[in-house]
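Final report, results section. Input specification for complex C-07:
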Amino acid sequence: MAEVAVQQEKEAIFSKKRVKLLTDPLNDNNPVTVQVLGICSALAITVQVKPALFMFAGVFFVVVLGNIVVSMLRNVIPNRVRIIAQLVIVAGLVSIVDMILKAYAYDVSKQLSVFVGLIITNCIVMGRLEAFAMANKPWPSALDGIGNSLGYGLLLIIVAIVRELFGSGKLLGFTIIPPSFYEHGYVNNGMMMMPPMALVLVGIIIWVQRSRNTKLIEAED
Amino acid sequence: MALNKESNGYVIMFSVILVLVTAVALVTVFSFTRDTVSNNQKLEKMQNILQAGRINVERNQAEAEYKKSIIDAFALTEKGEVKMKGEIDNVFNIDLASELKKKEGEEKLFPVFVCNKNDSTFYILGMRGKGLWDAIWGYVALQKDMNTIYNAVFDHKGETPGLGAEIKEGWYTAQFTGKKIADEKGEFVSVSVIKKGTAPASDYNVDGVSGGTLTSNGLHDMLKLFFSAFYEYAKTQKNAAPEVKAETVPATNDSIPADSLALDTQATDSLNNNTTTTNH
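Structure output:
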């Protein structure tokens, strides 16, 4: 354990490097638009904003706690079974989320249905555990988890806002588009309610982001 | 410490401890949430039963409304014999999943709830069957004549979204209203779930879900099983009190405002579900 102690250089709790862990996934290294992970759930549960919010909360809980737990155990997890160990931890956390949702947000849990369980297979979760938490201390891992789930949640909510607003004229269940619009021939876009439209929206977001963010533009050969 | 992290003994030790800790954490959370979850499920069931009688309430009012509207309940055997007469709570707690698992010859009990809404009586049949992937279930309300369907509510555990899962949507269940389980001569026919267009529309069939054939077949079998039990029961009731048939005329008249209401909900449902239908 002596070696670990030597490595512990004092670093400010919010040093530049660590703030980057939080902000990077929001834009430059967004898990959905840049790494293209977690697309599956982004398509499935973004028809309305409310389930998207709960999904974000669930993923937030799982990624942050999973990162912290795995990071604390990183020196005792045998390398041969590390993926299984991570899976057990993630599955445990997801089951907890599922039970809590069923108890305190029953309707949302019915709406999310299988997708709560599918957080386990959300690539962002395993990706962060394997790529970051296994090699970093708990605090940076926690920041990394917060950053990545915020990046995921941000995208989820943007897509959900567009889909709910144009698909059913509502936001969080409240009617936004006034009835007079409908009287003048405005029609809700049924396409918005279908999963492929979420993919198109994610594509548009990636396009906008890439054209604005110079870091993401690949050098031409 | 000369602990070899890659030795088999260490790996096994680590796995056992990790799994134990996870299990303890899960059990703790489960024991905290168990009561709330089962209460939620109970209220949802009450809500569904009321919904079959076209009484739509918020979940937190479901229990009060249920106590007010469900005035009687009994269980039927497959042959239509009445059991558990008046034991409303026991009938509510009948677990159809385990009833259906009973072997041939054992007595299966099917719940029937008697609902009173604005002085008209409905018989709400609890049902359960097999879809394509997992269980499907529902509640079907019959009018006082014990023959005409007033409303139906279905749900499922894991049918394919956009296909079999559509059976729970309002636009689908709306077609059940007004269907009959026995023909003019009083013979049992059930309501068949058929492929659209394979038979002329009648009072005894409804369309299946396109792309959800196996779910539709499951629904068909479920309806047949539970309707036949209720038909046998209805037959004994009608024999005992022949004037019931005469009463059916005012009963259907009573239901006219309710039916026009049904059309309204149907209209809004189809608005809301525009998108689900386009899924096909």
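Chain A touches chain B through 29 residues (CB under 8 Å). Strands of chain A lie at 170-171, 174-175. This concludes the modelling results for the funded period.
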